[in-house]
Amino acid sequence: MMQEYNRILVAVDGSDSSLSALKKAVSITKRNHGKLYIVHILDDTGSLPFDVAQFEKIARNKGNELLEKCHHYTIENGLDDVGILMEVGSPRTMISSTIPERENIDLIIMGARGLNAVERIFIGSVSDFVVRRAICDVLIVKTESDIMPEILMD
């Protein structure tokens, strides 16, 4: 018997890879008649050499804009049971355990590569960490080159 996933978390950062994950998450959530949680994490783990409050305001505005577009995409594609989450913290722990524990998530979907290439070189990707540490199943989605215009069109 095929596994049913009722509470699905998809992490988005605006990268092509995360938007491909969103597309896959919508499909899986609809097939399972589940609830989708779209999360964007404001990473507070780095040291910033400038005004943190100003940076957080800009990042929060960009994150809200991204989440709004992602939510609009889900509605256009027939999915209405959607939770929108913006969190501040370490993307690794927020995606692998904090949010899944709090929201009783049974599947995490995320892109293979996010926006932070420097972090990936030095300490590994968020997706690698999540695969190793997640408290539930994880699906890593490869990028579809044509997904970004479909979701993020102005």
Automatic annotation (TrEMBL):
Localization, UniProt: Cytoplasm
Annotated UspA domain residues: 5-142
InterPro entries, per the entry: Rossmann-like_a/b/a_fold (IPR014729), Universal_stress_UspA (IPR006015), UspA (IPR006016)
Cytoplasm among keywords: yes
UniProt keyword terms in alphabetical order: Cytoplasm
TM annotation in the entry: none
The keyword Signal belongs to this UniProt entry's keyword annotation: no
GO cellular component: cytoplasm
Homology family: Belongs to the universal stress protein A family.
UniProt protein name: Universal stress protein
Source organism (scientific name): Fundicoccus ignavus
